[in-house]
## 1
Amino acid sequence: MDNSIFENTQFPYNIATESSNEPLKILQINLAREKAATNQRQETASTIKPDVILVQEQYINNNVIPGIPQTWKTFSSSNQKAAILIPSPKLKPALLATKVNMVALKIQTSSFPITIVSAYSSPAQNVHTTLQEIQEIISSLPEEKIIIGADLNGHNTLWGYRSNDNRGKDILDFILANNLNIINKPDAIPTFQRNNSVGWPDLTLCSQSLIDSSINWEVLEEISLSDHRYIETTIASTVANQFNKRYKTRHGNHLRFLNILGKEIYHLERKIKAARNSGELNNATIELQTLIINACSKSFKIKKQLLITKPNWWTEQLEIHKKKVRALRRRAQRAPEIERQARYQVFKKEKAKYEGHIKQARNIGWRKFCSAASHPYGKQYKAAFRKSVFPSQIPYLKTETQREVCKRQHKTSWTRFSFPLPFPQITI
């Protein structure tokens, strides 16, 4: 097909631009490979409403990250120990690089484009491997605004530790060599706590060109069910979202649409038939598309864009239990030295009960979701093919065929499962 007739032609698109007065909000967390922490991530996102989530050491099941809604965009490093999640369907990120220990993407704010990096370096790994991967991104984007969320497991007094180690010195040399700024506050509460051990391994860095922007960095009190805490970074630059308008066409007003369209359709039909060259045909096409868009706007309501919602298995009882666990942790932190150990034991026992309740609520929610399905090849069947079903949840699938298909799927190493051949026959 000759595409030359479309050159220099601006066809109308049904695109709307939506700006928010809220600053760009970035959430950072090391999930410590905890299943409960991964399950609760969506609920936390619905409360804090971040634009971007930087994740390290997330829980992996069958080489897939479970518990992520379909509407979220996910970008992972090659070893899947670092990831960037975009909860908002309105944000349009561009993937820049995927390396073994890090992933980088770019988003457009109202003021400037910004590159976001998530990285992880295990204490048993040479930190220079991860630093070199980050270095390659920085070198390829000179003078651009970059923000880095990374768990590099290095000790240095500049980000909270009481002493320095060789790993921390190497990280500091890397920061100075690349003209980066440490956003962490040295007097902040620990970002990591396990039993009596505390630390500040989670770093947030930014380029020199971004330091002029108003940046706020805070370690949150939100329960994460990981031995790391959530970190919230806000940048004073709003996000401008472009999205395609989608109309509610299932609720009537079709006659009104036809009446509006019918007034001009015969004129356009004659205009298309009379077209003698590509320019006249393009003009008629543009006029037709514009007429259809205007008729839809006058006849139908626009579908609302999806917001970050709580998972459907989340209950009021879980919300109350979460607040109780958070209160017990706060009480333990503020207790006198002589009582602190005992209070932490009470907190840990309640936290273990809370994790069990989350697992139970998730399984019950999946059971209700499958038993209420009216079609055997509905959402529950598609969820099985997305490998978001745990083996313990397979018995709740509605039909024997679905259960068998899902069992076979969990025994394979395929990242996506197509319909089996021959197509299963189900008697309804």
Note: Residues 316-415 form one domain.
## 2
Amino acid sequence: MGAVTSSMAARFAFFPPSPPSYSVAADESGGKLRITDVAERDNVDVLKLATKRGTQIVAVYMRNPAASLTVLYSHGNAADLGQMYELFSELRVHLRVNLLGYDYSGYGQSTGKPTEQNTYADIEAAYRCLEETYGVKEEDVILYGQSVGSGPTLDLATRLPRLRAVVLHSPILSGLRVMYPVKRTYWFDIYKNIDKIPLVKCPVLVIHGTADDVVDCSHGKQLWERCKEKYEPLWVKGGNHCDLEIYPEYIKHLRKFISAVEKSAHLRTDSGLSIDSENSRCSTDCRDKPRSSTDQRERSRPSMEREMPRHSIDRRERSRSSIDRRERLRKSVDHSEKANNSTDQPEKARNSIDRFGDMMRSVGLCNIDCFKPTGAGV
């Protein structure tokens, strides 16, 4: 029965980039591993980790000397470490965290095949590395799961009672529920997040786009409703499945969340920091409702934040929307320049645009049909 489940998972859940976007090489002087075809960064370790299921996965650990918390990031479908590398580097800086990202079995240069059970073993190996190699404590870890990555993220989160926090980015209720509006959980379903989320004991932030045409916004809403410790969610108005990072509210809300959990070892809903019940409401079809986020209360003052670069975008919409998104980024950065009186802000804004351009040239595109069975319509 388990084999059948794994077979179904491989059919409609996993689409590793082919060929991989990167290679792993060893320096001639000392043998230190590095990822090719990406910009060299300081304080980055490239690792090969053995899993309990016999595969070897590739991971990157990015240090931030000012960090007190560490993010363990499980990326989405149709992506690998080479495509995520620049985003990870940006998150490390903007969120002031250490970050460990990894490739699932069968993704990038990781060995084996992608299956549901393998991804559980993959994230366990990554977490064990944080504990044993870097001395990171459970209470200082934030698990971040994007799309398919919400599966291994929630599975591990249910087994870590002292975990600091969880971020769910465009999460799924379950694999089957992405394709069909089923009302119950079947034995052959995969990533049964809907059943696991109530078991998570730490604060949970849910981020979802209202125009997500791969995993409907209602998935994020239902998971948020079932959280034991809710943090104010972010419904990104107009956001799709693979472009939330380019919206300025994305990084603002994440920074607020990180700051909140950094100040409290165990943030609770009655603390006054976690929920804005009025702004957090979302209809069953979130596409029909405007975004509600903390940023709505800040619109009266100029934004001082730069947008995060995006790591992927829908192939079908690239020619139509990339120019508009670049223009939005330019306007946001220009607005930040005018609002800030410091002498170094214009230079920082220009650097941000340069990094965005580098990322656009280096990353691949997300396959938004990643959950569709072979032969299914879009």
Note: Residues 266-285, 287-378 have pLDDT under 50 and may be disordered.
## 3
Amino acid sequence: MAANKENGDPVEMERLVEEPPSPTLPTVNPDVEASKPPGMVLPPWIYVVAWISFSSLVILFNKWVLVTLEFKYPVILTTYHLVFATVVTQVMARYTTMLDSRKAVKMTGRIYLRAVVPIGVFFSASLILSNVAYLYLSVSFIQMLKATTPMAVLLAGWALGVSQPTLKQAANVSVIVFGVIIASFGEIDFVLAGFIIQLGGVMFEALRLTMVQRLLSGDLKMDPLVSLYYFAPVCAALNAVIALLTEVPRCTMAQVLHVGLFTFFLNGLCAFMLNVSLVLLIGKTSAVVLTICGVLKDILLVVASMVLFGSQVTALQFFGYSIALGGMVYYKLGYEQIKGHLAEANRHWAAFGAEKPILRRISIVALAVFVGLALLGGVRHVM
């Protein structure tokens, strides 16, 4: 992994992406875990479930506030998330030991102005555009469009000289893009403005990741919470200026109270807990687990969007998105790792069948029914 960072490998950069419409900061040094006092040891699956839950909850929560509750001020919502994160990280830095690793960061005024502030600009733009897209597109379609992130990271890396293009990478990314194009053709509620806005958010995220990768060549070593400690104030200030110029004059207290102050508090808390769960997941598992969990989370979000918001996902979209997800997994892991993990999964599945054959049969039937209903629903929507 260290070799990936030194060479500016875009695969490693793309792995540092975190869930978009929430103030999740890059995992700059996932191999270094801050020393923690001994305590209760939890099984790894707890951290997996926590990260997937908070990551999905933040996205669905934002969609619910912006669309269902008709609080159509995505910049204000993003600014609130970042202010919430700023306040909490400042309190944690002063009264807890969870951010003590920041003392090892060689942060200077020059580095802050030349690295943190520009990255904060791109991060703010990415967050704002990602939230604005929810006003036009469904959660399921947005998750499909985010599959183009590897392509954007490669383009940004090539343009800024962080990485050199290879034919294999270009071919793999082309497969992902091809799948997303198919999924886009299958989208029923396609809105060009939302499509362009979301792709803009992906590109700004790719630029942010590329600049973070360049920052890795220095002495800065930060986990997600420490990154949030440094980046959140800059992003909050930038977003606040944009919000004051665009949305604050139109937003009324009645609209805020319609959503509810407690709802806003829970929304900000969920966004912050996403960062905490990411720290725990990285510290207790591995980059491979994070990659697989990311794909699983995207699939669950598509399903949740269909159930909660009535998003219509067609059979053509399922087909295209499957191609994109397959290409993304291959891009991140490679053939040998995929082969090894499939073999390991088969061994676990066989052991599960030997120990609990009835439960395995029930699982197969439930999965088959779910897939069948999803595909039939997609075909019905097309017709």
Note: Residues 1-39, 378-383 have pLDDT under 50 and may be disordered.
## 4
Amino acid sequence: MGLIGRRLLFLPDAPSALASPPGRRRLLWPPLLLFAMLALWLCMVYSCAAATTGSCAPAASSSAASSPHPKLLLLRTKNPPPPPLSPGDEEDEEGGEEEEGILDGAGPGPSSSALSSFLNGSGTKRLPQAVIIGVKKGGTRALLEFLRVHPDVRAVGAEPHFFDRNYERGLAWYRELMPRTLDGQITMEKTPSYFVTKEAPARISAMSKDTKLIVVVRDPVTRAISDYTQTLSKKPDIPTFESLTFKNRTTGLIDTSWSAIQIGIYAKHLENWLLYFPIGQILFVSGERLISDPAGELGRVQDFLGLKRIITDKHFYFNKTKGFPCLKKAEGSSKPHCLGKTKGRTHPSIDQKVVQRLREFYRPFNMKFYQMTGHDFGWD
């Protein structure tokens, strides 16, 4: 064997860079360089596949170190969003707004997005301890958004409609819709149609007999006209308010089968709730005073829920254009916001004789409602 052959055979035992002649060193560099490039490429492919953020990183540890909130990423990946409501379930009976953007231009800004992610990922999902059960067009959306300013209130924005439309999905499904809460916080939801749903009281009682109930009530005549106005905005070809109000205009017989009229017979619906809940477990909020004195009504609500009175006059300003109070600072925003464009619609002109006939119709029911609640709402 020649000298070169012997050198190659014992190459591992000798310093390669010194033992190999210049020509041989030049032949060894290309394969080594190719191997190094292949290894680097495989490392990058592995890092991209393993990254949870969808962006390539040299290594998972460096990606986590460069992130300002690595724990938030972990929380988001561990807690998937709740199951979506079926089509149509998101409809807000107060005007069609959904959870995000319920306030004009509102929504978490850059400064609050990290905090929002943290709150959504920590705590525990619980069944609601308080439910706003009614009434439609009474002011439930305003009340809910005002309450969400309180740091100890966590509420679903969209209406779950669990106890009237989705009850067969079960309590586990319902719980998944709820936001996560920390110790000392209250979970809430609002669905105004519960108040007029015959099965709702028994179903809520079966969930928890201790559930606190809130009903926002409003002059039933004004409420009916507001209800009609909302429907008219969606279906411009519906009959007139007057034709829907009466079974027979000549005799003045009111058509109580029309939902806009039927909802306002508060005493009748309340009787059904009192079969399952004591009157002291139900708070009745005045829709009129929620406009004229929002801080006062919110004070009563906070007391009822066992919360510290944090929401006060300083949180509100009166919007003359819309005709109702707005929040100076809404949840997730540092700017003043009012409820959406569907609020404060101009009511159509209704014949005063029709209005007067409706007041006569509702008067005995209102008197009974005052007696049942121990509160005169001053609708007459």
Note: The longest strand covers residues 212-217.
